[in-house]
Description:
By secondary structure, the chain is α/β, with parallel strands linked by helices. It folds into 2 domains: about 5-100 and about 290-305, 3-Layer(aba) Sandwich (Rossmann fold), CATH 3.40.50; about 100-280, Rossmann fold (3-Layer(aba) Sandwich), CATH 3.40.50. It has helices spanning about 15-20, 35-45, 60-65, 85-90, 100-115, 120-130, 155-170, 190-195, 215-220, 240-250, 290-305; strands at about 5, 25, 45-50, 70-75, 95, 150-155, 170-175, 185-190, 200-205, 230, 255, 275-280. The strands form 2 sheets. Strands 8-7-6-9-10-11-12 form a 7-stranded parallel beta sheet, with helices on both faces. The site of one glyoxylic acid (GLV) has 7 residues, from loops. One glyoxylic acid (GLV) binds near residues 102 and 157.
Amino acid sequence: xxxxxxxxxxxxxxxxxxxxxxxxxxxxxxxxxxxxxxxxxxxxxxxxxxxxxxxxxxxxxxxxxxxxxxxxxxxxxxxxxxxxxxxxxxxxxxxxxxxxxxxxxxxxxxxxxxxxxxxxxxxxxxxxxxxxxxxxxxxxxxxxxxxxxxxxxxxxxxxxxxxxxxxxxxxxxxxxxxxxxxxxxxxxxxxxxxxxxxxxxxxxxxxxxxxxxxxxxxxxxxxxxxxxxxxxxxxxxxxxxxxxxxxxxxxxxxxxxxxxxxxxxxxxxxxxxxxxxxxxxxxxxxxxxxxxxxxxxxxxxxxxxxxxxxxxxxxx
Length: 316
Ligand code: GLV
Ligand code: GLV
């Protein structure tokens, strides 16, 4: 009997073809949405590998129901959706997709920063709605990016890649990170100092016990009234109720977010009523080539893991 790999969302055939000969593949056939939890639970008992999306919570109960599970491979660099303590206790390895998505995610970070600063989404809507009547002296004016101060919270590979882009915009870069790094072109700052000095605050931090709610009312209160907050890390690091109030009351100027506490962002979320709020549907790593590389990494990890070989990109 071939070991079974359960895949929680439809992936292109080319991503899984190499696995078909040695393994039984069971895949949730919907490309638009991941398998519901009950569906995963039906199969997890037999699965040797779980190839999962970041939208799927792989918790202790799931590990307990999976006596044959050897590896969980996450189609993402972040892995806050997986209970690593439970994985370790059950002797299951977990892998992610670092590095291949670094530049793509830095591109999106910069795109969202620029879009937020220069109100691109709001401006684009006026073209479609007919609100664009004429050129106006102060219509749709935004914040300059060139020469501004960028504060990056969560300085890893993606942050470094953003720094390289910031050079071209003559930005001063500050960063705050759990551990200080020896970086050229970016200066370490305590969180409060970074918030007070930055024109753009870019969140790239993962979601952990330490970072949950890290940007709340107090922190938003420290930011400049002309500042933009950009989040391309993980939802839950920014308190969305506090953000709504800050945007509504002019505490900060605008926000651009690719990640949210609840994804998809519920349509009744009050943030969506604000003109100075730009939302993207978690597309940080969504470069076509990049997504194929990420899938290839997962497929390789699963194959090596199930063969008992050394596995790259293990997070535990
Ligand atoms: C996407 O958010 C990822 O973690 O890769
Ligand atoms: C992700 O790979 C990061 O280190 O920022």
